[in-house]
Predict the 3D structure of the following.
Amino acid sequence: MVQFDENRVLDTIEKVTKSVVNISTVKLMHNFFYQTVPVGGMGSGTIIDATKGLVLTNNHVVGGAEKINVTLWNSEVLQGTIEGYCAAEDIAVVRVKGKDLQQAEFGDSDNIRVGQRVYAIGNPFGLAGGPSVTSGVISAVKRTIQSERGLIENLVQTDASINPGNSGGPLVDMEGKVIAINTAIIPYAQGIGFAIPINSAKSCTLSLTTPAFRRPWLGVIGLTINADIARYYGLPVNRGVLVTNVAEGSPAEDAGMLDGDVILEVDNSEILGIEELVNEIRRRKVGDQVRIFGLRNSQEQFFELVLSQMP
């Protein structure tokens, strides 16, 4: 039996916390009298590139902000600007100019296992003493939840406490590697935390920071079909993706796809759920032709389309 070395884990967490920042924002809102007033917000972030000064956080933390202050672990305050964002994943990248930044080390979220111990780190107030840490386990993977901003797919679920101020901070494993980015976008979650897998966040970051990188786009939001979903919606299959929204002007809309369609195959590759669909699309390039097999009202359907660039 492997003995738990608490001191080693604590040393690892202490090192990771130096890559976690506080993010405070000012957004301009309209009050009851239609007057423009500044409203403050806060969250956390994770330094992912010390050389370029890139900080990964949630889109709902910085989206629409007029001013962004980034406070480091040593209380140094830097001005931040939004490099870009991926709304579907609730991910944003903020750029700062600073010296001696400490960047986090990435893990591989494809290897996350239910039951493994994790630590949620955040810096909600930028207080002396550094970031806060909560612990828990991975409760589930591949969760799809409904937020105020729409469906967010392929989330990691944990019982580690994630309050709004910790949103945007890292979820790390026992080796101190970031395996997900915490999000507190679910206001009704009590005792349940959600996080965006780091592989999804890295894909977003690559598309925002690499000029030559163009991310392919299908333009659908969907649910993984299982026995319960199939029974509830009266579907003839218990696998695949149930399309819940087709984006306007997307390749899917141009091909004639509709809400309620079921996606079963992409170029003869079987689609078991939303994760397989996302992976199949990401393996392709902008401009690639794709043939999708599915169902509409239990009748077979084929869709021919050309992937466009993610808007």
About this structure: The first strand starts at residue 20 and ends at 30. The chain has three domains: 6-96, 109-209, 216-309. The chain has a mean pLDDT of 85.
